[in-house]
Amino acid sequence: MELMDGLPADPGAIRALAFTGLAHFTTVLVDNGGVRGLDRHLARLVTDARALFDAELDPGLVRRRIREAIADEPARVVVRVTLFDPALTLERPGADAHPRILVSPRPAGSGAPRPLRVRSARFGRQHPEIKHTGLFGALYARRLAQRAGFDDAVFVDDGGAFSEGPTWNLGFAGADGGLVWPDGDALDGVTRELIAGVVPGTVRRVSALDGIAAAFATGSGVGIRPIASIDDVELDTAHPLLARIREAYAAIPPQAL
C-alpha cells in the first residue's frame, strides 16, 4: 500500500508533489524482506536530503516506513521511496524544509526481461549527483525513441560520449571481454556500484562502438538487462561477460529491512 509517513497518502500532498516536482528518491527491489545494497540506498537518501532540503534523515525511520508499506504486498516487490515537502511552493522553494517520506510499492517483474533496442539521444542530466524526480527530459527522450520503434533511449553528450539511459546505468563489454563503464556524466546507481565491487572493470570515455562487443543496462528493479542494439549497431546479448555479471550480482547477499 502506498503510504506517506506511515499513513495512506494524502491527495493534497501528492498534488503538491506534482506541481513542484522538487523531490528526490531511490528505488529498491525487496525480495523476502531483503534488499541488495540497502545501506547504499539509505546513504544516498541521507546525502540527497542534505543536498536538496538541508535536512537530516533517519535511515532507521526509512526502513520502518518501507516495512509498513509492504506489509500487505507480495514477498517480491519493487519499492520507490520519495522524499518531498508539500509545504514548499513554486514561489518559496527556499523555505525551511521538512521532507515527508512517501513509499510506493509496485509489482516486481518475473522472468528475465528481453534485450533492449535503444536509440542514442543527446541529453545531459541536471545535477546528476542527486537522484531527483526531474525526469521530463529523460522520459521525453524515451518517448521519442519508442515512437520511432525502439525500446528506449541511451544518452550521449555534445561530444558523442555515452553516459546512461533514462532510468538506468550503462555498461559495456570491450573487445578484450572486460567490463567498461562510460565516464560521461551520469547518476551512479547502486546496482552499478555493487557490480563494480565484485567484477573488475575500467572507466573510460566511450564515444564510438568500435571495439564494443556487448552492452547492458543496470538498475535495482531490473538487475542486468542486455542491450541488443544501439542505433543500427547489433550487439552480442549472449556475451560471456553478461552471464558473469549476473552470477556475481546474484551472489551478493541481500540486507534485511
UniProtKB/TrEMBL annotation:
Family: Belongs to the class-IV pyridoxal-phosphate-dependent aminotransferase family.
NCBIfam families linked: PRK09266.1
Name of the protein this chain belongs to: Branched-chain amino acid aminotransferase/4-amino-4-deoxychorismate lyase
Gene3D superfamilies in the cross-refs: 3.30.470.10, D-amino Acid Aminotransferase, subunit A, domain 2 (3.20.10.10)
